[in-house]
Write a structure and sequence with these properties.
222 residues; alpha+beta; TolA/TonB C-terminal domain; three-stranded antiparallel sheet; 3 helices; 6 strands; disordered N terminus
Length: 222
């Protein structure tokens, strides 16, 4: 780099004034150097634009890989002669003996016509004994004398078993009159003196029970 150096001119023929300071001359010299340096640096202040680097293109080469060599074929095996296969001899299976099923008894065929159960005929109704027939002439009971004096009255209901001959086989008191003397008098007359028309079942005489009411009543005399 070249440097510009400025020197102060000499004034010939005129002497410096005696009162001018020396430092003024020194300042003027420094100022001139400063201006010269500033001009020099201004000329070189803008650096030149750097040149763009050239673009590089990457080119890659693919090398073809060598093909693998095929493996060597295995050595041929020795072929052994085939072994003889054992012969299968079919033996006949024994045939099973036939199983004979036992005979089955078949039920007899049902009758085509349904059986009708025979219903026995209903027995003929029983006609109870009769004790009020006019021709029987059954007498009334005897009124006990003591019962008359004591004014005893009432109705006794007798239960009589009449046999096939029309006689009282059994006489019992079903309902009392309230007085034993009256009850006994009724039982005695029916058992001893009464006759009945026996009960009938169809055309036959049968024994049967019958109820007989007997009333004891006192009548006032006028």
């Amino acid at each position: 780099m070249a440097a510009v150096i400025a020197t102060a001119p000499h004034y010939l023929g005129r002497p410096r004034p005696a009162g001018a300071p020396q430092w003024l001359a020194l300042a003027l010299i420094v100022g001139l150097h400063t201006v010269a340096l500033a001009a020099l640096f201004a000329a070189h202040a803008a650096p030149p634009k750097p040149a763009q680097p050239p673009r590089t293109m990457m080119v890659s080469f693919v090398t073809e890989q060598p093909k693998p060599t095929p493996p060597a074929p295995p050595p041929p095996k020795r072929s052994e002669p085939p072994k003889p296969k054992p012969k299968m001899i079919a033996t006949p299976k024994p045939s099973p003996s036939p199983i004979v099923a036992p005979p089955i008894d078949k039920p007899p065929p049902p009758d085509s016509a349904p059986k009708v159960e025979e219903v026995p005929p209903a027995p003929p109704q029983v006609v109870p004994p009769n004790f009020v027939a006019a021709y029987l002439n059954n007498p009334g009971p005897r009124y006990p004398h003591l019962s008359v004096q004591m004014r005893e009255q009432g109705t006794v209901l007798l239960l009589v078993l009449v046999d096939a001959n029309g006689r009282a086989q059994k006489v019992t008191v079903k309902t009392s009159s309230g007085h034993s003397r009256l009850d006994d008098a009724a039982v005695d007359v029916v058992r001893q003196r009464w006759r009945f028309v026996p009960a009938k079942q169809g055309d036959q005489n049968v024994a049967a029970w019958v109820e007989i009411p007997i009333t004891f009543e006192l009548k006032h005399r006028h």
